[in-house]
Amino acid sequence: MGFKEILKVLFFLFCNSVSYGNNNVTVFLDWNYLYTISVYQDSSAKEKISMIKSQYIEYDQDEVIMIDILDVIDSMYYVEIYGGSTNSNYGKGWIKKEEPLYMMAKVYTPYDTIQIYNEPNKENYIAFLLDSNNIPLDGMIKIIDINTDKRWFKISFFYYDKNIIGWIPSYNLCGNPYTTCG
Fold it and tell me: How many Cα neighbours within 13 Å face the side chain of 94?
């Protein structure tokens, strides 16, 4: 293999690592409602080790509770929880997939369109086209499930009175409203 081929391989590997990093996913708790999620010692969800409360966000005085999803196993996520603006560390543990976790859709201009699929692959039927005319007002998309390689997300949001549910590639979502959503 020549020098140019080696550089191409290294460049490809670098771009892949930048795009997906350590393959962790960042999500956040909804700041419009107060609720509590349970954090468990292991994926059996038998021993609760802490409770994390969401908080209302007003006038940039409070912080969004951020969650890095480190692993996906069955009905559980292994996570690290922290404050989005202060990086206050709330620890690591397991949370149930049913917990209300959110991300923002990357729809910034009237020309941005995101395809939502019925299954986690692009060969599948498109269930809905998300654009600036039909994105939720607060921009938040509820995460229902994440596939094991964390590249597809099953999402849910309301468009008028219809609940839209489908799969979306991870690159169309961002999980940190402080840094990556604008």
Answer: 16
